[in-house]
Design a protein that fits this description.
The protein has about 350 residues and is α/β, with parallel strands linked by helices. The chain has 11 helices and 10 strands. Helices cover about 40% and strands about 20% of the residues. It has a 5-stranded mixed sheet, sandwiched between helices. It has a 5-stranded mixed sheet with strand order 8-7-6-9-10, with helices on both faces. The structure holds 5'-O-[(R)-(carboxyoxy)(hydroxy)phosphoryl]adenosine and zinc ion.
Length: about 350
């Protein structure tokens, strides 16, 4: 089954052509980073306008690179949520037009299911059941994944997402947007044990996250540091970045491993933009390895938002006979637990 997958949920316009939910023929992403950079974060109105400008050329490019045409498609998959409403609407109305005119089945995809299934675009895939950590700019959640379409939420952030914390800390540090890559780069020159920033483990066994306290702690520290009042001598911005990153990594690794022990699974998957972070990958592999558990990460291009993961998730929707009709609408909030697949 050849599926066109489209994602316009935030600030990337992406389209991909994928066969049977795993073989990627093309994956085109048009980033809006430069436009939002000047504002220090994503401006929803600008994102929608950019999607309108870019959606057609991006889809055309995805066909060109895949060497196929519209007539070869067996389905079109589109993200309907969660995400920015105005941005999602651009993708949805574009594919509604395509699907209607060309009479192609349409699949409504949950963006988070896309992130979880992005690992199946890789050669090495995890065995079911597994535990998945999705860490992005909008989400930080742990799921128990029994099969395609069968996900149970085990824990999630109560306030900021991990990527949001990276973005906010980068902003107050003057490192710009998006923050994750900038902090990771800066952290390479720093010592991660120079400052002991807080770790919000909540209670011992809790699988929920909280990153807003950490963000505030870094902001307060930065202020003291700028004013020359930080007690320690010779603390660099790189030390602050590395110490902040280590705090996020500690909490993420600790919690996902609690979840894996609780469900007694042998595989852990990490996906979403923050899963690109090399220190996080290194630490999770180290800790999981010590417990004889295999960790699976999609390549960075499939961690950040992309159309290929939406095509993969859409393929499984269509296999299950879940075809959307023209009354389909977007959802700014779309908890994955609402994807109920009956036995
Ligand atoms: O999955 P994604 O592309 O979009 C959402 O669905 O949110 O994730 C984007 C987030 C941003 O917050 C960005 O700062 C973060 O992922 N990110 C990183 C890294 N690369 C991207 N965070 C930490 N380290 C990275 N290398
Ligand atoms: Zn995402």
């Amino acid at each position: 089954m050849i599926i066109l997958g489209i994602d316009t949920s935030c600030d990337d316009t992406s389209a991909a052509v994928v066969v049977d939910g795993k073989s990627v023929l093309s994956n085109v992403v048009h980033s809006q980073v430069e436009i939002h950079h000047a504002h220090g974060g994503v401006v929803p109105e600008l994102a929608s306008r950019e999607h309108i400008k870019n959606i057609m050329p991006v889809v055309e490019e995805s066909f060109l690179r895949a060497g196929i045409g519209m007539k070869d498609l067996n389905g079109i998959a589109v993200t309907v949520g969660p995400g920015l409403v105005g941005a999602l609407l651009v993708g949805l109305y574009y594919v509604k037009g395509l699907a209607y005119v060309c009479d192609i089945p349409l699949a409504a995809v949950n963006h988070l299911e896309g992130h979880i299934l992005s690992i199946f675009l890789e050669k090495k895939t995890p065995p079911f059941p597994f535990v998945a950590l999705t860490v992005s700019g909008g989400h930080t959640s742990i799921y128990h994944v029994e099969d395609y379409g069968r996900y149970t939420l085990m824990g999630q952030t109560l306030d900021d997402a991990a990527g949001e914390a990276f973005d906010k800390v980068a902003k107050i540090s003057g490192l710009g947007y998006p923050g994750g890559v900038a902090i990771e780069k800066m952290a390479l020159d720093g010592k991660n044990d120079k400052i002991k920033f807080p770790r919000a483990y909540l209670t011992n066994e809790s699988l929920d996250f909280s990153f807003s306290g950490l963000k505030t702690a870094v902001a307060l520290y930065m202020k003291k540091w700028h004013d020359g009042q930080a007690k320690e001598d010779e603390i660099t911005l790189a030390d602050i970045a590395a110490s902040f990153q280590e705090s996020v990594v500690d909490v993420l690794v600790h919690k996902v491993m609690i979840a894996r022990r609780k469900m007694a699974v042998k595989a852990v998957v990490m996906a979403g933009g923050v899963a690109c972070n090399k220190r996080l990958r290194e630490r999770l592999s180290e800790v999981a390895g010590g417990e004889g558990v295999e960790v699976y990460y999609p390549r960075p291009e499939y961690c950040t938002d992309n159309g290929a993961m939406i095509a993969a998730a859409g393929y499984h929707c269509l296999l299950r006979g879940e075809t959307a009709d023209m009354s389909l609408d977007v959802r700014s909030k779309f908890p994955i637990q609402e994807l109920r697949i009956e036995d």
